[in-house]
Design a protein that fits this description.
Elements (H helix, E strand, L loop, with lengths): L1 H23 L4 H13 L26 H5 L17 E16 L4 E13 L13 E3 L12 E4 L1 E6 L7 E5 L4 E13 L11 E10 L7 E5 L6 E3 L8 E15 L3 E14 L2 H18 L10 H24 L9 H40 L9 H9 L4 H9 L3 H14 L2 H10 L4 H27 L1
Parallel strand pairs: 1-9, 1-10
Antiparallel strand pairs: 1-2, 2-7, 3-6, 4-8, 5-7, 6-7, 8-12, 11-12
Helix pairs in contact: 4-5, 4-6, 5-6, 6-10, 6-11, 8-9, 9-10
């Protein structure tokens, strides 16, 4: 009986020992490997006792269990107010990198520019401890949780932040609380151009940046590095303009209802290329004026040749003027190209008037010659015509009258009329003097020299003044 009781106690002791091995005994090898992998992912490294390498303290900014709100303590502060509220104005530095200058429109009086706009300020509420990571970088989703400057472009017509493939916005926070806020934006702004020297003009346009709500008592806006704060891409070029220089300025703007604001200016100077307008406007206008001079070398009696030539040049000049004005704004002052085109139009018009004057004088001269010819005696069928001519005009003008009756050349007839006017009797002299006329040939001869000379003088004065 005692032996059976002893055996039963031994069996119970063995069963209890097996259960304790299953509960607190050694874990499987697969579990140990998974645990080592988990610890390595968390950055926890175990070292042997007595090793000279100490365990590194984990960087809390890289811990997966920490959120940005916890690192920057966003929930502990009210970011609806600016940093240092109630104290001096917060300085906000700005620098700009111009990526492209897209279009310059004279009709709309504006320009379009794409740029990188960067803001720098310090917000001690965002300071965080860090030993390894120098800064934290966030995208546009984080901007709604903190305070950022409320910048806008003065006199802008259209502007937008690029959003392909995501919003082109970057926020970088440094451990000491310094903040970098950068965005890529395209803006179309006004540019008041003076086109009085167009197309030989130089234009200066400005892009103005200002805070919308904060006056100079709350926010001090400045260029971070002076003129070096503005950088441009070397590949920037325009089809009609040569970019001469970019520069920056800072001024104060006053609004009667809100106060004084700091305003930053990005100014750039553009000089227009003239070669396009030389080919499209100046050369055609000059050729039309020179073409109108061809009529001075055509016979004054060739009406079908000279009239269409003058009308064609006038209509062509009208078309050139209309085409130029169609692509320009309707300004209330005279442009340089208007002066050149309208003076050229006047020269073409005067060439048509010149032929009208020549044709009119020729017609009147022929009519008076016909009247004078009717007043001369007819000597046909007479045995001694010289006696009749001598009895009527005198011996001095008899040879001149005989020559007039047989002359066919117009110039010869005019010279004979002059002789008759000087030496004839009263009736014949009055008829001849009435036929004493300006030589219509001489008008064309003088026009061949006066028109080109006057136009060349105009070109010399024009290009010396506007260039």
């Amino acid at each position: 009986m005692q032996m059976e009781t002893l055996l039963l106690l031994c069996m119970c002791a063995l069963v209890a020992a097996g259960r304790s091995d299953r509960r607190g005994g050694r874990r499987p090898a697969t579990y140990d490997r998974s645990r080592q992998r988990t610890e390595s992912e968390k950055g926890v490294t175990s070292y042997k006792s007595g090793s000279p390498i100490r365990r590194r303290s984990p960087d809390m900014t890289k811990s997966r269990t920490m959120k940005s709100e916890q690192i920057l303590r966003i929930r502990e502060h009210d970011f609806t107010m600016r940093p240092g509220f109630g104290g001096p104005p917060i300085p906000v530095g700005v620098d700009v990198q111009v990526e492209s200058l897209d279009t310059i429109s004279e009709v709309d009086m504006d320009f379009t520019m794409t740029l990188y706009l960067r803001h720098y300020w310090k917000d001690e509420r965002l300071a965080f401890p860090s030993t390894n990571n120098q800064s934290l970088t966030f995208d546009s989703r984080f901007l709604k949780k903190i305070w950022v400057p409320d910048m806008f472009f003065v006199h802008s017509k259209r502007s937008f932040i690029h959003d392909t493939t995501t919003d082109n916005v970057m926020l970088r926070v440094f451990p000491d609380g310094n903040v970098l806020y950068s965005l890529r934006v395209t803006v179309t702004a006004m540019c008041n151009m003076d086109l009085s020297h167009f197309p030989l003009d130089t234009q200066t346009c400005s892009l103005e940046i200002e805070s919308y709500a904060y006056t100079d008592e709350d926010l001090m806006l400045y260029w971070k590095k002076g003129n070096d704060s503005l950088r441009t891409d070397d590949k920037i070029s325009l089809s009609q303009f040569l970019i001469q220089k970019f520069h920056t300025t800072t001024k104060l703007a006053f609004y009667s209802s809100t106060g004084w604001y700091n305003r930053l200016y990005i100014s750039f100077t553009l000089r227009r290329h003239i070669f396009f307008f030389l080919l499209q406007t100046y050369f055609p206008a000059t050729l039309m004026v020179m073409l109108s001079w061809v009529s001075f070398w055509i016979d004054r009696r060739a009406v079908p040749a000279r009239v269409p030539l003058g009308i064609t040049t006038v209509l062509t000049m009208s078309t050139i003027i209309t085409g130029v004005n169609a692509s320009m704004p309707k300004v209330s002052y005279i442009k340089a190209i208007d002066i050149y085109l309208w003076v050229s139009f006047v020269f073409v018009f005067l060439s048509v008037i010149e032929y009208a004057a020549v044709n009119y004088l020729t017609t009147m001269q022929e009519r008076r010659e016909r009247t004078l010819r009717d007043g001369l005696p007819c000597t046909c069928g007479l045995a001694h015509p010289d006696q009749v001519m001598a009895s009527r005009y005198g011996s001095m003008d008899m040879s001149a009258a005989r020559s007039y009756s047989t002359a066919e050349d117009g110039d010869t007839r005019e010279r004979i009329l002059v002789q008759l006017a000087l030496g004839g009797d009263g009736r014949t002299a009055s008829l001849a003097k009435s036929a004493l006329w300006i030589d219509t040939h001489s008008i064309d001869k003088y026009s061949r020299m006066v028109f080109p000379g006057a136009y060349a003088l105009f070109n010399m004065i024009y290009w010396s003044v506007y260039s």
